[in-house]
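In the present case, backbone shapes were mapped to integers, as reproduced here:
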Amino acid sequence: MINTTNPFTEVIEARFEAHTAEQVEQLLEGAAQAQRQWAKTPLSARLPLLHRVAVVLRENKAAYARLITMEMGKPIVEAEGEIEKCAVTCEFYAENAPRFLSDMTVESNATESSVVFDPLGIVLAVMPWNYPFWQFVRFAAPALAAGNGALLKHANNVPQCALALQDAFVKAGAPEGLVTTLLVEASEVAGLIADRRVAAVTLTGSTAVGKIVAAQAGAVMKKQVLELGGSDPFIVLADADIDEAAKVAAKARFTNTGQSCICAKRFLVEESVADRFVEALCAHAAELKIGDPMQRDTSVGPMARGNLRDELHSQVQRTIAAGAKLLIGGAPVEGPGYFYPPTVMDHVTPDMAAAKEETFGPAAAVIRVKDADEAVRLANVTEFGLGAALWTRDLERAKSLARRIEAGAVFINGLVASDARLPFGGIKQSGYGRELGEFGIREFTNIKTVWIGPAR
């Protein structure tokens, strides 16, 4: 049984029977047939689907946002923003896919040689709960544009979002089976990866799960894109705009109740401005309203599950026990709902839990550093490498420092975020491969050389 448990009320809102083996077989075969026909459809005829998906998302934004909020607790205004971002991304690929997928002529020893981009087939998407619409759409929009099919195995605490995603593509006129949701347990993923009709797999999730999926896909020689955990550094140098940095830092840490792989988690601040930064960060955090995520003035909702809150609290307690100074927050909110308040810890050191582990919730760890070199060194000491933020007024110096930071993205004087126009992904234990942008649409294509000769 797959359940929707409302993290605000802790009440089970809906129950779903998992698909049987026979149903999975039928859905897989339907997906395979749909994808074969879709691959034969000219690109110009595929792309209107994405424009129509954008329309459906916007027309149903209120209903889809409420599903997100009810199933995983995201504040409703943020949930609406998630749906809009999905629509924008669909439009982006509808407009830019012809350029990204056009044949490339390459000079060689042939009369003519080129590179073409053919679809791989059905891509299995193993998706997380924290951005239940966005994580799927950011993969599906470019993958479908390229001629692939999408098979969704979503996190089991957001089954209604999973079914709504399939329904959105159907409403937009997608061929039956091209986007298929499977309601199955995690234990069935290995069998899906091994199935002859599945060509590749994309996973957004924890590093631990990523290693399992990578091994399963590697055993059957199938392409993978893995977007995994993060412990993103937020570097504040002495010459930064401290007030603006602290304001953005609060958003960078506490958006989506801190449940994002690219939330800033380690705040590496030069000692000379640390007191000012910490004071301002705490002031901004204290202004955030905790409460019913369906209310439009709520900025911090419940965490998605009780066990996630317990794990975060353990990390906070271990960090404080090791010598960090707790400034605000630091204990679960009493009463129903999986609430944990915005929490700030100062004088954290790299060996403490909140610095060396991924904290997936509203807890900020401030690490004081002597200079930029130490900040970069500590930014890189983590096993992760997803995003990083760097704050300084010296932009030439910032560009040089950015090249030294080990991450898939470095944002200078801004909030780390995904953008359909830019490639997104990590290095080290944060995974490999890229989503979004020109690079993302090619991940699930056969980058094929066509050589015509002999040369004249």
About this structure: The chain is about 40% helix and 20% strand. The mean pLDDT is 98.
